[in-house]
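Hi V.,

You were right to ask for the full record rather than a summary. Here it is.
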Amino acid sequence: MGLAVVTVAAGGMPVVDVTGIAPRTGLPVTEATNGYGVPVTKVAALGMPVVFESIGVGESATDPFWSSVVLLMGFNGADGSTGAPGLTDESIAVNGTGTFHNQAQIDTAQFKFGTSSLLLDGTTDWVSFPSDNDFVLSTLPFTIECWIRPTTIVGTHFICVCWETSGLLAWSFYQLNEQIWLNVSTIGTDNISFLGGGTLTANAWHAVCVDFDGITYRIYINGAMVASSTVLKNISASIKVLGIGGSSNSGAFSFAGWIDELRLTKAARYASNTGYTVRTTAFPRSA
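Predicted structure:
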């Protein structure tokens, strides 16, 4: 009889337990209330040898950039809810609870992490946060990232923006057909289609991200860099109201689908032409 070979998932320690036999053997098993725990390998009978073939590097439960996180939305709440806790900023900046507009709501039918996500129907649904200097990008390093599950890959759909349709513009991170784009304004009224690329598919979760390290702007889809530019833009602060899933003031260009784990960091997290490894767990909530 050969040895049972077990590959342990990243982020945990190998644990051997025995089912149906008391007292059980092996290392203690713990599971945190936040959903993080250790993988458990259950052995059907005493004496069955187990070899741990490989152990994942692991994902940190803390964030070295925590002091620079100005918005962190897990969108976890009751199905159909339109307030706290699903729309409460979990970042260190404590930007309060956003406002749902029209049919925007927390939905438990789809989520990447946790138990729910933000659902938008692609008409005029959006979420807004009041004007704040936290949302001014200027020429400072930043990272905007989230998971999206679009129901269509046709049209323009805002993901996270400081962008009004009445002529006040700053920046827009959005879906354009099957691509992800960053538009910026430098004087508050000019609309510069600045950087975009990649390929999305409908009805599938994608990790989407844009970061700027002070020299290079980069867009990533599922960890792979799909576009970059070294043309410096002094992004306008003409509007500081944040819109999620639609324009900041009216919900125009509403996203169609689900958004989960949205994070805005005033630092460049990845800054890599070779891409980065996408997390398989929710973003950390502490330093």
